[in-house]
Design goal:
The chain has 550 residues and is mainly α. Helix content is 61%, strand content 4%. Strands 1-2 form a two-stranded antiparallel sheet. The chain has a two-stranded antiparallel sheet with strand order 3-4. Strands 5-6 form a two-stranded antiparallel ribbon. The longest helix has 39 residues.
């Protein structure tokens, strides 16, 4: 049932990673007190045990699917059956590893998770018609149950205390003051955002409050709901995409991707909608015989939900030009569909984003607390000086391009303070490069030159718009580079960028899927054990305006 070569490779790789982990743990966990050492070691063993079990279960499931589908499919249908197995395989791996990421990272340890938690709680207060939300000159803060305020005390840069809190035994249900008394934490500022970006988290928090669930359990329920929405969208994306399943699967299993989608970040919704939208566009462009009203409704709805969450992804709507006009009933139907979609997306986009963009359209400069109150660029200033703006955009790529690239894969996790070894990042880069080759498990689809140009332009546009947005929101005046740009901003468009690089010159005769999945398992074992090792040897802390606070 399990191929000997694959299993042997897995065992050797596993032993190699264990040696690396043991070397690190020798200088970390063993220096702590006995109780912490035992608990950290327990987490490590459970993590690796679940990883092995998940891998073996996946192989058993794959073997069963292969037998069933090979028996039902005719010879010419077998390639399609293999592609279905690819979708199931990557989805199951993402599910297993996503759960591990969810519990290895303590609460609030993902990028801006304290603010995402606050916004979801703020929305839940509004739904319950609660008067607990409070507005101060420096921002909006949700009133929280005392049991939820305990979660707000977790450090954004987690340390050994955070694992100790998780092991201390949080109550499943609460009553009395823990449920009925509310307070405010200065660490949970609600930053705003469209309500549907926080809908999964808000629903989970509402359920937790209604059934008197403890604060820590409510928090993890919110993470679970957020992750479930992403996994649902990913399932349809992997199922629909006509080619590039390996590409999408590897991207969905990158350390940075799983780190984001297993948290309270709205990046889970952004990534899910992006992959969903890209897969549907490619299905209509390369597989479907005709474009129906239902297809256009799906495209319109997904883009109308995606674009308002983060302005830069509105450019992805231009990917619809990949769909040939001939697949519409008539030229009139094509123009009408395009006009309706553009109108609906533009209307929702403007209604949501105009109030958010007004402060940046002002002539007066906003101040940046992290830069000691320095003023930042304004949109008006950047538009009036196009030469300077273009210079800053491309200088940012020159100076920070390599950093953005490796961070997109997950070189730095948490709040960019947990460094993952390049030994885990380089295989991800190589695997993504391999997905551009022709393989037995992928259909040999020819991407027209026009479509490559569209894909490249949209990718470049999203990258430049991401840099420009941070130039107007996070960069001190006078700086020659844009500050605050994160590599994770490029993940939603990454599938298109990689698929545009597909070619028929690079061909792999042996199916690389087994090797990719084995390598990804090793990457995540090394990544998560590095995270545990980093957290258990330090004390937690916050960073406020560049100053470490405990």
């Amino acid at each position: 049932m399990i191929k000997n070569k694959s299993f042997a490779a897995f065992c050797l790789s596993f032993l190699f990673v264990i040696v690396l982990v043991a070397c690190g743990m020798k200088n970390s966990v063993l220096t702590l007190n006995d109780m912490t050492k035992i608990k950290a070691f327990y987490v490590l063993i459970v993590l690796l045990g679940v990883a092995i079990t998940g891998f073996l279960a996946w192989r058993v499931f794959e073997a069963k699917c292969s037998k069933d589908e090979a028996g039902q499919a005719s010879r010419e249908d077998r390639p399609a059956a293999k592609r279905d197995i690819t979708a199931k395989r990557f989805w199951l791996l993402a599910l297993c590893w996503g759960f591990l990421y969810m519990f290895v990272f303590p609460p609030l340890s993902s990028p801006d998770e304290n603010n995402h938690y606050a916004q979801a709680y703020y929305n839940a207060n509004i739904v319950l018609s609660s008067s607990e939300n409070v507005s101060f000159p420096d921002g909006d803060y949700p009133g929280m149950r005392l049991t939820d305020l305990e979660v707000a005390e977790f450090y954004t840069r987690p340390g050994v205390e955070d694992y100790q809190k998780l092991f201390s035994g949080a109550p499943l249900f609460v009553s009395g003051d823990q449920q009925n008394v509310y307070g405010i934490s200065d660490r949970t500022e609600a930053l705003g955002g469209v309500f549907w970006a926080y809908l999964p988290q808000t629903v989970a928090i509402l359920i937790g409050r209604v059934i008197h669930l403890g604060g820590l359990w409510t928090f993890y329920l919110a993470r679970l709901f957020n992750f479930a929405v992403y996994m649902t969208l990913l399932w349809f994306a992997l199922k629909w995409i006509p080619f590039g399943k390996n590409t999408l699967g590897v991207i969905a299993l990158l350390p940075m991707t799983l780190h984001l989608v297993a948290s309270l970040s709205y990046d889970a919704v952004i990534l899910g909608l992006s992959f969903f939208f890209i897969a549907k566009v490619l299905q209509l462009a390369y597989q479907a015989e005709h474009v129906t009203r239902r297809d256009m409704a799906i495209l319109t709805a997904s883009m109308a939900l995606l674009a308002p969450i983060k302005v830069i992804y509105v450019l992805m709507a231009f990917l619809c030009f990949l769909i040939p006009k001939q697949k519409f009933k008539s030229p009139k139907s094509f123009k009408l569909s395009a006009a309706v979609m553009a109108g609906i997306v533009a209307l929702i986009f403007l209604l949501v984003n105009i109030p958010r963009l007004l402060p940046y359209l002002n002539e007066s400069n906003l101040t940046l607390e992290y830069a000691g109150g320095a003023e930042c660029y304004t949109l008006a200033e950047l538009i009036k000086n196009p030469v300077k703006t273009v210079y800053i955009l491309f200088n940012t790529i020159r100076v920070y391009g390599g950093e953005h690239f490796t961070r997109m894969f997950g070189e730095w996790l948490g709040w960019l303070e947990i460094r993952i070894p390049l030994l885990a990042i380089i295989p991800c880069i190589l695997m993504l490069a391999l997905t551009t080759a022709v393989t037995p498990s992928e259909p040999n689809v020819r991407i027209e030159k026009k479509n490559r140009v569209i894909g490249i332009l949209v990718t470049a546009g999203v990258i430049l718009l991401a840099i420009f947005s941070m130039l107007a929101a996070w960069t001190p005046t006078g700086s020659s580079v844009a500050e605050g740009v994160q590599g994770r901003y490029y993940l939603p468009i990454l599938p298109i960028a990689v698929l545009c690089a597909r070619n028929r010159f690079l061909e792999i005769h042996k199916d690389p899927r087994d090797g990719m999945c084995l390598a990804l398992c090793m990457v995540h074992i090394l990544t998560l054990t590095t995270v545990i090792e980093t957290i258990v040897v330090r004390l937690g802390y916050h960073v406020v305006n560049g100053v470490i606070v405990r």
